[in-house]
Write a sequence for this structure.
């Protein structure tokens, strides 16, 4: 069950992370039109990018696995781990919703775009992919990233930790394929206009995913009346997130 929860969090974290400055940069700079301007083949560069992202996720998973092994040695039982995951999921959703007055992005670091003009495609493709796949070397756009790390560690299973983080890296790497059909500057501009408009719905969807993970975890370990109360609280937080964003937009437009 922890593996399933972790994989769900990994996919949610990867999806939201695509809207980071680094993710947007990749969708501008590693496209058929941009690669043609550098006399490179998009398919080859994208392949290196995905490979680098998978390697980054794998290495993150190995690091998490060390903590998972330590927790297993300490005798962490699955019920306690799931309870902690439930608490972490609700906390991360609240942070993403800015319920506490702060939220992402965190770790405001961008990849070095000078690599694009200095190095070969396999270097900048693989290097950018690794940094993005590792998850915590560039912009962190959602608290689902540290939640994913926590879930992997709380699994108390090295293979589960590696699987969760590797899926995150793979999903982040695949995002580069969103630009596979962008062969003209006009197509690139139109794509980014559409993509930018989907950022807020994706943010809310990721918050909903974190809350869903928390609710599922609570139903596994808590009495029914507690689980029902937590489920109601999750729905309330999601509704508050939506209304808060509407109020923010109205204030901005005025």
């Amino acid at each position: 069950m922890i593996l399933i929860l972790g994989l769900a969090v990994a996919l949610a974290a990867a999806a939201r992370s695509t809207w980071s400055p680094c993710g947007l940069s990749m969708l501008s700079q590693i496209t058929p039109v941009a690669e043609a301007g550098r006399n490179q083949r998009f398919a080859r560069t994208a392949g290196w990018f995905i490979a680098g992202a998978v390697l980054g996720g794998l290495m993150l998973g190995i690091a998490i696995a060390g903590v998972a092994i330590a927790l297993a040695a300490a005798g962490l039982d699955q019920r306690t781990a799931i309870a902690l995951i439930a608490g972490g999921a609700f906390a991360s959703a609240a942070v993403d919703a800015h319920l506490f007055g702060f939220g992402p992005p965190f770790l405001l670091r961008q990849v070095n775009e000078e690599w694009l003009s200095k190095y070969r495609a396999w270097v900048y493709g693989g290097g950018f992919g690794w940094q993005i796949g590792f998850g915590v070397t560039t912009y962190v756009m959602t608290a689902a990233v540290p939640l994913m790390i926590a879930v992997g560690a709380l699994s108390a299973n090295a293979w589960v930790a590696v699987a969760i983080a590797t899926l995150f890296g793979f999903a982040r790497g695949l995002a580069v394929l969103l630009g596979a059909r962008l062969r003209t500057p006009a197509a690139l501009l139109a794509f980014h206009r559409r993509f930018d408009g989907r950022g807020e719905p994706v943010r809310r969807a990721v918050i909903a995913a974190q809350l869903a993970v928390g609710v599922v975890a609570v139903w596994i370990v808590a009495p029914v009346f507690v689980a029902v109360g937590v489920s109601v609280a999750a729905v309330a937080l999601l509704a508050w997130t939506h209304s808060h964003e509407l109020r923010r937009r109205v204030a901005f437009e005025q």
